[in-house]
Design goal:
With 438 residues, the protein is α/β, with parallel strands linked by helices. The chain folds into three domains: 201 residues, FAD/NAD(P)-binding domain (3-Layer(bba) Sandwich); 99 residues; 98 residues, no CATH class. The chain is globular and about 60 Å long. Bound molecules: flavin-adenine dinucleotide.
Length: 438
């Protein structure tokens, strides 16, 4: 059976790895000149910067990703390390909360800070533990985070716990899917690790493990040929190729623009995809910070400003500063206005950051706007994680890995959840539709 994977980001690579294990030899189509997508890292002025991977949960012994790394022989290829005392430091209403590498320690810390909420905290953690199991067979918990937080009275405690929504939906999103929240929160508290070499190391490890897949870079799919509810072929670089099955890991809204159909149900399906809400986009500053920063810093205000350290370079911290940003702020500017706006915004955020904490000198090496993200990944309005992982959309959207076409499957950050964990789980669910032929 011939399988085409559209998109060579981390999701496309994981799908290929899983299909190979089942006996398939898939073909990956990637529009850029290299695979890895948003997960990749890049060199500028000889410094390695990370784009879409700084750290991940679920990597402690026995957790989901750890087990997967073991099963696919990636453990020897990747060097993991723990954060010293806390992986995240949260600056919230004039207080700093350091999030420890342990769910029980975190729970106890919360009970100390918010003694009047002891019972509600215990109950909340129990609910989180129940829904934290990552397995294809576990039923989805369809509640919103807000609903499970109903017993909390203290606003600050709620805001603090809402921190974990920033990894899969948006800043302190009350309506985030609780199912994904619980999985991410517990897997991070008990298993957050850094990976030496950043996202590029993971991309290289998976790519080098692929033995039977064909990777076609600079191969942008421009159209799918359909007949009723079947995809017959795809078009790229002036060629038409036929496959038996297609796994799309690109943004579903981008995908829908590549398919023309006369079928009413299919068109309704695409209308529905178009109506789904997106995560916000980001403005990113890639820089060298004089002070050594060991863990991830989140300064919560109207917009959260995060400082994510990657590694040390000549005694300085290589870091990415991220701030939520609207695509339309940059969408309609001419070249010089765009350049000016980018420089002004950068100066504004650096100034703000210097007031928030003592960072010493900050040397800006590169900047990216929502437009950069959009051009690079071909998503929708440069959205950070694609489709918003809200409770409402998880119930209503039914963007299941099996599409309305007989032989088209959906994976990638938009389907289950973003991040290494979401993409890996999404790839497992989608490749589960493919019989073992090895
Ligand atoms: C700033 C930022 C920080 C992040 N930090 C973390 C983190 O610390 N930890 C973590 O786990 N996750 C993090 N994430 C999330 C994680 O990076 C993403 O969820 C993940 O990389 C998405 O992978 P994907 O393969 O699903 O999508 P993508 O990476 O978008 O891959 C899709 C691929 O498809 C290609 N493509 C698009 N259209 C076509 C076409 N028509 N034909 C062929 N190819 C096409 C694109 O070029 C791209 O390579 C972060 C994301 C961002 C943006």
């Amino acid at each position: 059976m011939k399988v085409a994977i559209i998109g060579g980001g981390i999701s496309g690579l994981i799908c290929a790895l899983m299909l190979e294990k089942k006996g398939y030899s898939p073909t990956i189509f990637e529009k850029n000149s290299a695979v890895g997508g948003v997960f990749n890292s890049f060199f500028k002025k000889g410094i390695l910067f990370d784009i879409g991977f700084h750290y991940s949960g679920s990597l402690a012994k026995g957790q989901y990703l750890d087990t997967m790394f073991e099963y696919y022989n990636l453990k020897d290829k990747l060097k993991l390390s723990k954060y010293d005392f806390a992986f995240d430091s949260i600056y919230l209403d004039d207080k700093i909360f350091h999030i420890p590498n342990n769910s029980i320690a975190f729970k106890e810390m919360l009970k100390k800070y918010f003694p009047q909420e002891k019972i509600a905290i215990e109950k909340f953690f129990l609910e989180c533990l129940k829904s934290s199991i990552i397995s294809i067979d576990t039923p989805i918990d369809h509640r919103s985070l807000d609903k499970v937080m109903i017993d909390f009275k203290d606003i600050k405690l709620k805001k603090l716990l809402q921190h974990f929504t920033i990894f899969f939906s948006k800043q302190q999103h009350k309506q985030a899917s609780f199912d994904i929240y619980a999985k991410i929160m517990i897997s991070m508290l008990d298993g957050t690790r850094k990976i030496k070499g950043g996202g590029k190391a993971v991309v290289d490890a998976i790519k080098n493990s692929l033995k039977k897949s064909t990777i076609k870079t600079k191969s942008e799919i421009v159209e799918f040929i359909t007949e009723e509810k079947t995809i017959k072929a795809l078009k790229y670089n002036g060629k038409t190729e036929k496959y038996d099955s297609y796994i799309s890991t690109i943004h579903p809204k981008t995908l829908s623009q590549l398919i023309r159909s006369e079928n009413r149900n299919i068109n309704r399906y695409f209308q529905h995809i178009k109506s789904l809400e997106e995560t916000p986009s980001v403005f990113a500053i890639f820089c060298l910070i004089e002070k050594e920063i060991k863990n991830n810093l989140y300064f919560y205000d109207k917009k959260c400003l995060s400082v994510l350290p990657s590694r040390q370079h000549n005694g300085k911290t290589v870091a990415t500063i991220l701030i939520e940003c609207d695509y339309n702020t940059y969408a309609n500017l001419d070249k010089s206005a765009y350049k000016e706006k980018k420089a002004n915004e950068c100066a504004k955020y650096i100034k703000k950051l210097k007031k928030l904490a003592d960072f010493g000198n900050i040397e800006v090496i590169d900047i990216s706007t929502p437009l950069t993200k959009q051009r690079y990944s071909n998503g929708y309005n440069g959205s950070l994680y694609g489709i918003l992982c809200s409770n409402k959309q998880k119930i209503l959207s039914m963007l299941t890995p099996k599409s309305r076409f007989d032989n088209l499957y959906l994976a990638g950050e938009n389907i289950i959840a973003p991040g290494l964990l979401g993409c890996w789980f999404g790839a497992e669910i989608v490749t589960n539709y493919f019989k073992d032929i090895a």
